[in-house]
Amino acid sequence: MPVDTDPAEAGDTTPADAEAPGPVDTDPAEAEAGEAEAPEAGGEEDTSLVAVAQDRALPDVEEHDTLVSALEAMLLVVDTPVDEETLAGALEQPVDRVTEVLRTMAEDYTDAGRGIDLRRSGEGWRLYTRDTYAPFVEKLLLDGQRSKLTRAALETLAVIAYRQPVTRSRVAAVRGVNVDGVIRTLVQRGLIEETGTDGETGGTLYVTTELFLERLGLESLNDLPPIAPLLPEVDSIDDI
Question: Of 20, 135, 144, 179, which one has the fewest beta carbons inside 10 Å?
Fold first, then answer.
């Protein structure tokens, strides 16, 4: 006859005195050693990457020609003039040496009749299109339509340049016409900008910008030509 068996007993084939498998005991010292090994592998990889980067030596700017090439590369990407101190800092070279090389480069470009011109204007150095070839650049960028300032805009700009900071009303008094539209155009062109208000009238004061100096190839307003031959009536501003 079949013998009745307790289902639980039928499914249990483990000896009564056998213990269920549990977590494997690990020596704490071995565990700590294992944990420490993983970061070391990553650390060795990081160190090797640093070593590779260090092995990739930068060009030796102690060489004159290499320094010239490095300066050209940096000046090619700047939108505004960069001073000698900034360039020297990036190259880790003495300011005097960088200044001397920049001047030599400017002379070499001119002597060779290069299409680019290296000039110091405003607060630093920048590459410009040489005037001789400017028409080709304008044709490329403007599709042959040259955008020039009108005579009215040039006269207004001259008044502001020589008597800045100056208000719109005083400029209008000198020119004898309304200058609202012209002022707006000069601001949009980036040639002038607002700089506070007049203490007496409350009118907005205007001054020329860094771009104004760049376009004229000047280092500062002190380089502007004498005012008398160009705009003799501008002195009347003081009487208004």
Answer: 20
